[in-house]
Structure formats: C-alpha cells, structure tokens
C-alpha cells in the first residue's frame, strides 16, 4: 500500500512537472512568436519595385519627375512600397528592350517609347502620325489617355499601364541649315523616334533612321545623321547644343508630330501586391498622372528652349504657305498607315478621326481653363 502511494505520489508529481514544463515551453514559444511576428510581417509586407529607364541620372525627367513620383508612392504607403529608380539602362539591356524587360518580369516598372518597337503597338501609332498632336503636351496627353482606354487597351494587354502621355509638338533639329519646305529634307539622314513619323520624312525625300535617344549625340558627332526629330526638352538632357545649330518649328494649330511615352508595370508584380498597396499605385497613376506628366513635359520643354537660345541656336518658324506645303506633302502617310493597319483588321480611319476629335476636345478645354 505504501509502495503504491509512493508511486502515485511521485507519478503525480512527475505529471505536474511535465505539465509545468509543457506550459513553459508553450508560453516561451508563444512569447517568441509574439516578439518575432511584427518583424516577419513587416518584412513580408514591404515591397521594393525596380524602375528602369534610359535617360541620364541628371536629366530633368529623372530628377523632377521619376524620383518625386517614387517618393510619393513611399509616403502614401507609409514606407511599405518603395520604388528604386535606375537610370541610363544600368540594369542592363538596350532602350528598345525595356518593354520586353517589364513584360518578362525582369524589372517591375519601365519608362519607354512604344515607337522603339515598330508594329508592336499599332493602335497607339495614330498619335505619332503627322498633324495629330496639338502644340501642348498637356492637352494631347489627356486625349491620348482617353484614346488608350477606349481604343488601344489591346495593344498594352501584356502590361499594367500606369500612364500614357506624350511630349509637346516635336521640332526638327539640324546641323547646318533650317528645313523650311518639305523638299529641303531631301537626301538628309534624320533621326526619328518611330517608324510612323519616319515614313513622313521618307515621303519628303529624307532618309529616316530609328535611333534611341541616348545614342543620338554619338550619331551626330560621327556624322551618321544630319539632324534629328525631338522636342526641345531633350537638348540639354542629351547635350546636343554644340552639335545642333538650327531648329525648324511649325507654327500651325497642330504639331508636326509627337512621340508616345509609356509608364508600364509588370502585370505579375502588380497582381502580387497587397490590395492596399495596389490602391496606392492606382491613386498615383492613370488619367490624372498622364495629364500631370504632360503638363510637366510642357514645363521642361521651356528649359530646352532656353538652353538652345543660350547656345546661339537659330529657330526658323514654318507658317502660312510653307506650313500648308508640309501638311499636304504628308497626307499620303496617313493613307498608307490606314492601309497597313487595315490588313491587320484595324479600322485606321476610325482611329484617326477619334484621335483628332479627342485632341480638339482637350485643346478647347485648355483654352477655357
């Protein structure tokens, strides 16, 4: 009997020790989990996005547009969503490969030109046809974004679109003399931002050459091109003042051309974000961002004008009969474009009419605001 009591006593004591040990282990585990949970959750929730573009780090686009936009994203997300902006193709590749980098999830966000990949974005090409854009990027960019939403979503189905906009009406930069009439372009090799506007130059007798912006200075210095189609804003960015002495600017109600810009995000990256982080991006993208970027491109355009004037450059304005001659000479380009996209089942005439109507709508709004 005593023996049994002794065994029970020690057995009960052992059980109590086991239970205390179990409670201690459990409590310790819970305490460790409680301590570590906020840190692990924070690490899991914080996201860093890689934003890649081709322009130099000192460019106004990088300094006053892309970096501040990234800062707004970080602030609005309380630091949980950060955008690292990398300039000058430092993550590798060529400018014309940026769109495939974001489509293939090699990077998360890119700034690029659809015109660098001819034929890939046929519906967006309409805005790069001659005499579609207005002289102000702010009005044309608003028209362009609405056009994208209504007519061109299929072009950009492989990416998540953050913004679509354009630069102000482009001008013709030339080394030696201004190009006053279409025939003055004959025989000249001129850099173009897209095949579409290149066809217009070809109709004037020029030889268009598709060259990404960062390579233009080298091409000019080597004599591979005689000039380039650009907005003014790119002149200080690419240090073109010493190579370009003349600019041809068109003084009509429509600009000679523009180039479409795209701020695109990997669909995979966007879909993987927490819902609240997607809402932060949504609040800082879309129609409002596109309009704002167009307005800011108008502002930095003036920096380029001042830079060219300070270097003693000469601007020749094309107007009246000379302006009409350029418009008339480029009409065949629009017809050829309609025929080309028509073979792919796209109603080019409808798209041209829609683009012109939207540009007119937002240009009129700008006059009254």
Q: Notable features of this structure?
A:
369 residues, alpha/beta, D-Maltodextrin-Binding Protein, domain 2, 6-stranded mixed sheet, 5-stranded mixed sheet, disordered N terminus
Quick synopsis:
By secondary structure, this protein is of the alpha/beta class. The chain contains 13 helices and eleven strands. Helices cover 50% and strands 15% of the residues.
**Category from helices, strands and their pairing:** alpha/beta
- Topology, number of strands: 11
How far the N terminus sits from the C terminus, by CA atoms, comes to 103 Å
How much is the radius of gyration in Å? Answer: 29 Å
Describe the protein's architecture and organization.
The strands form two sheets. The protein has a six-stranded mixed β-sheet. 50% of the residues lie in helices and 15% in strands. It has 13 helices and eleven strands. With 369 residues, the protein is an alpha/beta fold. It has two domains: 45-168 and 262-298, Bacterial extracellular solute-binding protein, family 7 (D-Maltodextrin-Binding Protein, domain 2); 171-258 and 304-368, Bacterial extracellular solute-binding protein, family 7 (D-Maltodextrin-Binding Protein, domain 2). It has helices at 2-45, 60-76, 98-103, 137-151, 195-203, 216-221, 234-238, 267-272, 275-283, 287-310, 320-329, 331-342, 348-368, and strands spanning 47-52, 81-86, 109-112, 159-166, 171-174, 189-192, 207-210, 227-230, 246-250, 260-266, 314-318.
